[in-house]
UniProtKB/TrEMBL annotation:
Superkingdom of the organism of origin: Bacteria
Alphabetized UniProt keyword annotations: Signal
Gene3D superfamilies xrefs: 3.30.230.10
Name of the protein in question: Lon proteolytic domain-containing protein
Lineage summary: Bacteria, Bacillati, Actinomycetota, Actinomycetes, Kitasatosporales
């Protein structure tokens, strides 16, 4: 049949299956999730009318400045992402295309994913409290800390929770604020020993931080390169590996003395 067609006609006929295949691929769901900068919350203040950090068994201090934990917003586990969606978001600096399995555990239901994220948040809060009280040399049997942050899951606020507890109870250790009156933002998991871990999505979190007024961003040292990739103007990166190093860096910033690491 093709031998009876002119060359342009033959090419057009051959191209039809390719066009159809591309059209199908453009609308077929792909195993990706789309992410963008999310909300931030000051752990020294209130969230939805409730104090984020409440302490009993020890005196707390009035703080100034802010310690803002950061988030990203990701399309839901059942959201269908097409090739067109991927192309639309791939080259935007305020968007990221991520493998779905890197965001959501493969095979889990929506309910199971929500329960997993809430469990991670609770574990993160417990570890953050233990790390902060250990840093301060306080007895966890006598000092009780309650952490409340609605509509946020996962472990990435751990570092900021620990710093918030320390600032509420001891500040910089000599009467000043750990923040130095600044708006400090950051991200990072933390374990009970005070070790800070990587979290992912830091390039988007730096944008959320700067949008909400932060001038300093605490980032797990292993993620410096990612944080620098889309770093907003006016935001200073401070890499951290442990709770001790984060506190030391903030005190050095506040007092204007001593070395402050950079990426």
């Amino acid at each position: 049949m093709l031998s009876r067609l002119t060359r342009p006609q033959a090419l057009a006929v051959c191209a039809l299956p390719v066009v159809a295949l591309l059209a199908t691929a453009a609308f077929a769901p792909l195993p990706f999730s789309l992410a963008q900068p999310g909300t931030t919350a000051n752990v020294l203040g209130e969230n939805q009318g409730t104090p984020v950090i409440s302490v009993s068994g020890a005196a707390t201090r009035k703080t100034s400045g802010q310690l803002r934990m950061t988030t990203i917003v990701v399309t839901g586990p059942e959201t269908k992402v097409s090739l067109g969606d991927v192309f639309d978001n791939w080259f935007r600096t305020d968007r990221a295309v991520m493998p779905r399995d890197a965001v959501y555990p493969s095979g889990d239901t929506v309910k199971e994913i929500e329960e997993h994220n809430l469990a991670q948040m609770q574990e993160s809060q417990d570890a953050a409290t233990q790390a902060a009280l250990k840093y301060l040399g306080l007895n966890a049997d006598k000092v009780k800390v309650s952490l409340e942050l609605a509509d946020v899951g996962g472990p990435s606020a751990g570092l900021l929770f620990s710093l918030g507890i320390i600032d509420k109870l001891d500040g910089d250790g000599s009467g000043g604020d750990l923040t130095g009156g600044r708006t400090i933002a950051g991200t990072g998991t933390i374990d009970a020993s005070g070790k800070v871990g990587a979290v992912g999505g830091v390039a988007l979190k730096t944008q959320a931080a700067r949008r909400d007024g932060a001038t300093v961003f605490l980032v797990p040292k292993a993620e410096c390169a990612d944080a620098e990739s889309e770093l907003p103007k006016g935001l200073r990166l401070v890499p951290v590996t442990t709770l001790d190093s984060a506190v030391d860096s903030l005190v050095a910033l506040e007092k204007g003395k001593g070395p402050v690491p950079s990426c």
